Amino acid sequence: MAKSISVFGLGAMGLVLAEVFLKKGYKTTVWNRSPEKAKDLVANGAHLATTVAEGLEASDLIVVCLLNHEAVNTTIKQALPSLKGRTVVNLTNGTSDHAREMSALVIAQGGRYIHGGIMGVPPMVAAGVAFLIYSGPLEVYQSVEQDIALLGTPRHLDAEVGTASLYDLALLSGMYGLFTGFIHAVSLVRSQPGKDKKDINVSEFVNTLLVPWLSHMNEYTKILADQIDADDYSSKSARIVMQIPAIDNIVQQSKANGISPEPIAAIQKLFILANDRGFGNDDLSQLVNHNDAKEN
Ligand SMILES: NC(=O)c1ccc[n+]([C@@H]2O[C@H](COP(=O)([O-])OP(=O)(O)OC[C@H]3O[C@@H](n4cnc5c(N)ncnc54)[C@H](OP(=O)(O)O)[C@@H]3O)[C@@H](O)[C@H]2O)c1
Ligand SMILES: *[C@@H]1O[C@H](CO)[C@@H](O)[C@H](O)[C@H]1NC(C)=O
Ligand SMILES: *[C@@H]1O[C@H](CO)[C@@H](O)[C@H](O)[C@H]1NC(C)=O
Ligand SMILES: *[C@@H]1O[C@H](CO)[C@@H](O)[C@H](O)[C@H]1NC(C)=O
Ligand SMILES: CC(=O)N[C@H]1CO[C@H](CO)[C@@H](O)[C@@H]1O
């Protein structure tokens, strides 16, 4: 296990990452564009690096948690030679291409690179209940596994370094789909003509109707997944042709009540496309085969 660590980026997430290592007794060095965010950490024994090079050189293990790709241009790239011999664990949000690009850059400097996605918000990381997904060479991952396990349950997905970003984005996409449905469903309920919005108890709707309904649908996605794995979409429980009018009704009701139909129009397009291509009798799992960018 590494005894020292450098954490780059002290935003909401980076601060918690640094606190976890500090509490576990690591000699913790931190760097942030705005150094004042390190005040509490320094009071608790962390060292504040004043330059990027100093931050990199202080530890063999470097954890990066910055806002985005652009932030890295103005940081790590200032001190490339200092990456030599270091292991970079990058927990910054991005695309697979960004991860591959950075991995190549770090390796070219004689460093090692693992990319990760934090599945959780800062309080979950602080409480040790988040899970994290990683990709990159297995031996590099194993060399830091005990250290990064302090941040939450780790899972190594694949040696291909872009994998964690792709899976992270896939999980987030599932989450945003859920939130999209939540917002649209609540908007519909609150749009009832002749009713005052403040007389509509959203908690009551969500707790007694939406959540039980979605819990069943959540389980149903496992059946859909089996159909996709088997490449057999012929189950007749909810055929595409049967669902098209239901979706059209949601669009009509939304428009009539002054709610944007856009969230539902997106999936409606896929249903119509799959039907037009002759798959109307299949279950909705068939839609994965029609989600191609060129048609949408
Ligand atoms: N918060 C979450 O729930 C959560 C969960 C999972 C993953 N993440 C990921 O963790 C990463 C950090 O998120 P966060 O919530 O900590 O974000 P945040 O609170 O907005 O912090 C952003 C960090 O990036 C730095 N930064 C931004 N632009 C910069 C630039 N041009 N040059 C140098 N530094 C720059 C900021 O420095 P300053 O302090 O100087 O502004 C700060 O350290 C993101 O990739 C995020 O997606 C966050
Ligand atoms: C960290 O990952 C982000 C997102 O993939 C990328 O934009 C950034 O360049 C990487 N930074 C480092 C230092 O590896
Ligand atoms: C990062 O810097 C390079 C030049 O070193 C530039 O070509 C690139 O556009 C920059 N990327 C971003 C996202 O700012
Ligand atoms: C809304 O309903 C919940 C029960 O689901 C109840 O606990 C709450 O007090 C109600 N809120 C209002 C403002 O009536
Ligand atoms: C790679 C990574 O850190 N992904 C995160 C992107 O941001 C969302 C929300 O802030 C997180 O849930 C992801 O884990």
From TrEMBL:
InterPro entries for the chain: 6PGD_dom2, 6PGDH_NADP-bd, HIBADH-related, HIBADH-related_NP60_sf, NAD(P)-bd_dom_sf, RedAm-like_C
GO annotation terms (biological process): transcription elongation-coupled chromatin remodeling
Cellular component aspect of the GO annotation: chromatin
SUPFAM superfamilies with a match to the protein in the record: NAD(P)-binding Rossmann-fold domains
Cited Pfam families: NAD_binding_2, RedAm-like_C
Keywords: Oxidoreductase
GO molecular function, one term: oxidoreductase activity
Domain 6-phosphogluconate dehydrogenase NADP-binding: start-end pairs: 5-146
Domain NADPH-dependent reductive aminase-like C-terminal: 161-289
Signal sequence bounds: none
Protein name: 6-phosphogluconate dehydrogenase NADP-binding domain-containing protein
Origin species: Actinomortierella ambigua
